[in-house]
Amino acid sequence: MKPLVIFGTSQIAELAHFYFTRDADRSVVAFTVDGAYVTEATNCSCPVVPFEELAERFPADEHDVFVALSYASINKLREHKFNAVQALGYDCPSYISSRATVLTQYPIGKNCFILEDNTIQPFVRIGHNVTLWSGNHIGHHSVIEDHAFISSHVVVSGNCYIEEGCFLGVNSTIRDNMRIGKRSVLGVGARILEDVAPEGVYMEKSTERSRVPSSRLRGL
User: Fold this and answer.
1) CATH of region 4-87, choose from 1.10.8, 3.60.21, 3.40.50, 3.30.70
2) Cα torsion at 176, 180, 185, 190 (round to 10°)?
3) What is the pLDDT of residues 67-112, one digit of tens each?
4) How many other CB atoms are found less than 10 A from the CB of residue 187?
5) Facing residues of 38 across strands?
6) Of residues 146, 4, 1, 36, the one with CA closest to residue 82
7) Which of 17, 99, 130, 167 is the most buried (most CB within 10 A)?
8) 94-200 homologous superfamily
């Protein structure tokens, strides 16, 4: 396997370094970000290289790149940088946790970040540049298109279709046979019982604060 460069220097990039080195036995040799965002010379004891210099210093025929970015701009930033890295000729490997249960027989796309305790049932199809944070259920025959970000403890029931660039928040639930339109956002705890048109936003209300302060509670 080629040495790996990680695009990004955020906490997600640090996690990518941890998972690739500890669980996937990959050698991480550098981080990279756009030159204007280089603020430190090193990260996780590896050099931070301006992206504009990456091809010269860490050429594509000798290195892979993993784009470790969040859901910023409804996943458009991660999509843009993934495409930019691909355009330079780099391969973008996926990380799939050894502690995930992956039962689908179909190959998972490039630059995916699939963390521990995900259950991916048979006949699921996952595109490129998809993040599945820890503890999700992806039901049988479901499709997750490119550039989606699924946070933690999300339930995608059987035969659902998640279109490109969607964000699914913590504990959101989608019933079976639903289609979630492109760039939709499901907030924390959202419950989806019907199809979602593109760019839909679904937010649950926060739990209200009680007028009784905690100092007056009895039995705790």
Assistant:
1) 3.40.50
2) -20
3) 999 999 999 999 999 999 999 999 999 999 999 999 999 999 999 9
4) 17
5) none
6) 146
7) 130
8) Hexapeptide repeat proteins (2.160.10.10)
